[in-house]
Write the structure tokens for this entry.
Amino acid sequence: MLELRNITKRFGAVLANDHISFKVPAGTIHAIVGENGAGKSTVMRIAYGFYTADEGEILVNDQVRDIRSPHDAIALGIGMVHQHFMLVEPMTVAENIVLGAEPGSAASLDLKKAAAEIRKLSDEFKLAVDPNATIETLSVGQQQRVELLKALYRHAQLLILDEPTAVLTPQEVEEFFVILRRMREQGKTIVIITHKLSEVLAISDDVTVMRDGRVVGNVKTSETNAAELARLMVGREVLLRVEKPDAKPGAPVLSTKDLTILGRDGSKRVDNVSLEIRAGEIVGIAGVEGNGQTELIEALAGLIPSSHISGSIAFEGHDITRTDARQRKELGIAHIPEDRHRRGLLLDFSLAENTILGVHYRKPAVSAGGIFLDEKGIQRRTAQVISDFDVRPPNAALPARALSGGNQQKLIIGREFGLPPKFLLVSQPTRGVDIGAIEFIHRKIVALRDAGCAVLLVSAELEEVTALSDRLLVIHNGAIAGQVDPKKTSNEDIGLMMTGGHR
Amino acid sequence: MKYVREILFPLIAVLAAFVIGGIVVWIIGDSPWQTYKLLIGSAFSWPDGIGYTLFNATPLIFTGLAVAVAFRCGLLNIGAEGQLYVAAFAAAWVGFKFGAQDPGNTAITPFMHLPIFLLVPLCCIAAIAAGAIWGGIPGVLKAKFGSHEVINTIMLNFIAVALLSYFTQYRYKIPGDPILQTAPVSPQAHLPTLGRYIPGFPERIPLNFAFILAVLACVLVYIFLWKTKWGYELRATGANPSAAEYGGVSIRKQIVLAMAISGGLAGMVGINEVLGYRHSYYDGFSANYGFVGIAVALLGRNHPVGVFLAAILFAILLRGGIFVDAFTLHVSKDIVDMLQGIVIILVALRPEAIFGSGKKFGLMKKAKV
């Protein structure tokens, strides 16, 4: 169906794709895996006409084709679903799907005809999408199916899916895979870009592994395993499991009592949560995103105005409910925020300026008078973080924007670990971070725990919370649905609790 | 790379504006070469050209810095115009109320007779404080109620102008004076011209100590923004308020602070105008300094050095325009406004959109998965 031959693409001095070649036979599911920056999205964007290759050729159904725009790709039966949905929220499913491919003559819009056609497609692939529903009323999983329908409506024979499972719950991932298999049975070809090895093994027929812009392996899924794929991706042996000794919990460090948090719109985001975290343990919170995790973490970090909070938060026995973010940092509460671009970094500021965020008012960031920034002190601290946390490239003058996601995250972690913390709030520590850095970050968090720090961990990756946590709380609709032992509970059971079901 | 972009891009914008302006001049029927020689060359004669250029640049340096500081905090201060009026009035009021009466002042009796070394600083402080308050109001409104500073600063411009016209007309004018201006300030409130101290530089040129203050303000703003923890907090707020908040910075405090500093800097125009030049508050004296300040900050990349250079450029044009008006056949001094407009449009373009090289790097980041 699709074949790429020697695709090469440069962005300025960066070689994003270096002679990429692989074949995707019709009626198969083909996975492309690789770390961040390996060039996997770039190559598929070339196939979809977003970029044009500097060298190489694209063959569709054994014919060399010139794909200069997504328009060309669509005409050849290639569709793409992006990681971030491109949907107009207040409009209906049908309106979204026909957008850019409106039926009827130029002046009139035949939505009824379109809706009927969409319903037919939806039934054919058992997608269960109502063409007349508005997008904002749909769940994330349903929205993704709308994106699939968009491509199918344009008669796509080959679908490129960019990190499709990033936003789905474990159950939704299962359903999604059922849909993909059904599409394969109906003769569609699917290319799935991902970095989750378990999914590659579960769904794909063939795998192309990329590293540093090159193809480092083309293998049949049935003839490989996670360890081999990880080694190909990273270029060395990788520990896929978190190795950690049993926790030795000490005295309680942070506790909440009947903590209720209201959102900006006045709705309850966190509902009567009482919890306790002890020194030397990692408490994980599992839950579908948007069930109050963000608000809980932000409230503990002092980032939600106390007028929106009822109940109390205590740190080492003292009530800190009404203290602000700076006072909590002073106490030793570190925070690795879920969205490093929004909260964690000043992207246009240098690494040096970023390593003092939050401690910029005290030594070593300021000199003796307490007013002027101490350039030498800042440089020393930055050099320390860069070397301790292996931030690359190790150049303190670079803007944070120039770093990869993994290195940005290491910079934030280095900054927060330098407080030093007695209590660590950590949210999505490895989102968008490559496997090598994930291993590194996990080890650092466990080491911090072993040094006696209390850790509260939130992650959308169920595997991550179960692997790291000593105790696991499941949150649903802002309330704690239960506590489980992560070693003894299956992901399916946890997934059920996450969606409000019972074990 | 960063420096090349920061310096080269505004420079190219200016040159491109001159090329476009030259074409317009040629179409109108004058020689672009002659016109530009008048426009720019007249600024470099000694002592008048240089003296007047620096004098004209003084208010623009203050307003440019004002807009730049607010912008570094992510705020757009459109109200420098109102702030500098209020400040100039405050300086004048202190000037005629707290010092020995000027012979021409037949209307207002001062409270006290302060000596020059007290009165001048007091007038300066009054100007800065009044500007800071007038700028701080929209800051407080934004911090407390979330109302947009652009709307509120514009509205406060109108209020300032109307209020000060009233006070000038009905309270502090010398009866019978045909000009809408307040009584003159005390001679003890005069800021000396630089001509008094520079040999060969005539005293009739109004360049005064306010220019030294402007240079000083550039240095202080630079130190404040990049060398102190307060400047760090202000810039962090402008760069990413969420991250600043996460770093324990109070966004509300920063908004009020930035607007007050911005207003105070704009207010320093009053020092140049009242203490250094006219020696009274003259209704409507500002040649749109507050608004040109936005252009100065934009062209100067919101950096004190850039602001200084941009203010000089605009001052050159301001003076050159008069000569173009007088000595060319067709072109009028409106060419200056046109050039300013073109420069600003060009500077407001994203360099990436034109050169593409930087943009590719941006795409590369997005391409990563």
Summary: The mean pLDDT of chain A is 89. Chain A has two domains: 2-234, 252-346+405-498. The radius of gyration of chain A is 25 Å.
